[in-house]
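Dig into these lines:

——
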Amino acid sequence: MKSNVGGIDKILRIVVGAVLIGLALTGMIGVWGWIGVLPLATGLFNFCPAYQLLGINTCKLSRK
């Protein structure tokens, strides 16, 4: 797996995922809040399968 999630994208995914899970735990949005596991995981692993399928990469490229 090559990293394809970086920078602001990563931070937003982690925050949105954590908020959704928190809301699900408190019962404010119900079971659908557990969908927050997906953005949280993609943010933590720096890899998004949908980005790979679409050819998107938000990581900065290192130049040598």
User: Anything to note?
Assistant: The chain has a mean pLDDT of 92. The chain has three helices and no strands.
